[in-house]
Amino acid sequence: SHALQHPAHGYYTSQSTQIGQRGDFVTAPEISQLFGELIGVWCVSVWTQLGAPASINVVEMGGGKGTLMADLLRATENFPAFRDAISLHLVETSHELRKKQAEAVGATEVPTKRPLLQKPLGGVPVPPPMSGLPEMADGMTDEQLRAHLASAHDAEVAANPEMVLPDGNTVKFHSTLATVPPGPILFVGQEILDALPVHQFEYTSEGWRERLVDLDDGTGEQHFRFILSREETPAVKSFLRRRGAAVDEEAQEGVEGEGGAQED
């Protein structure tokens, strides 16, 4: 996760042109606009099968430069009822890629309708009883907790401004899927699972061990190698707790890492 998303050194946060024919890799949306347009038609089809709800969230995760979403939106211009129903939510952790995505879809920032809460604190809802809050709130007074919640709210507002498309549809950026509002959702994710970190485990004669990346002092071009942990790592222990029992020998497993992917 740090290798991809570290604020200063992460792959997706420290570079600005790693996607495309002149970058490190190219994906289908960058090769032909037909890909994104077909995804747009698919969205309209699924929306119709859902009963054409009057409001639906279109969520893209890891949208790169925004090429796919731009093609999707262009293709759906011929379906005005669908366009009137959608709210666009873009889950993206890279600020540089957020800028590119906003530019690609023609989104512009609008003054937020959500008031800042930190100053003054008056009017901030009183939090629930302390006994009902996570352990992190232990020791906080109600006033301190209100200030903490207000500060977190203000930071979220500043980091994720409200935006609109040229036709008036709302656009909202998110740092995590958890902040996408509830309701009917159409998910779009081009190769997003490929970019999520996973823990890999292998069963040995000594039990489950985690597969790790180590430095290789050899003379080859790639100065990294795969090794197995000598002991049970915290990830292995968590994996075993989830399984609740021993699993088959000679098996290899991949489970979710910080990004939330799961592979077998």
Order of the strands making up the biggest sheet: 3-4-5-2-1-6
Quaternary organisation of the protein chains: single chain
In DSSP terms, counting alpha (H) and pi (I) runs of 4 or more, how many helices? 9
Nearest-integer average pLDDT: 77
The gross shape turns out to be: globular
How many individual β-strands?
10
Strand content: 15-25%
- What is the succession of H and E elements? HHHHEHHEHEHEEEEEEHE
Structural category: alpha/beta
Please estimate the helix content.
Answer: 25-40%
Instruction: Report the span from N to C terminus.
Output: 19 Å
Largest sheet: 6 strands, mixed
Low-confidence blocks of residues: 116-136, 256-264
- Radius of gyration, in Å, reads 23 Å
Task: Characterise the protein shown here.
This protein has 264 residues and is of the alpha/beta class. Helices cover 31% and strands 20% of the residues. The chain is globular and about 60 Å long. Residues 116-136 and 256-264 have low confidence and may be disordered.
Secondary structure elements and their pairing?
Layout: H1 2-5, H2 11-14, H3 28-31, H4 33-49, E1 56-61, H5 67-75, H6 80-85, E2 86-91, H7 95-105, E3 108-109, H8 142-159, E4 162-164, E5 170-174, E6 185-188, E7 198-204, E8 207-215, E9 224-228, H9 234-243, E10 252-256
Parallel strand pairs: 1-2, 1-6, 2-5
Antiparallel strand pairs: 3-4, 4-5, 7-8, 7-10, 8-9
Helix pairs in contact: 4-5
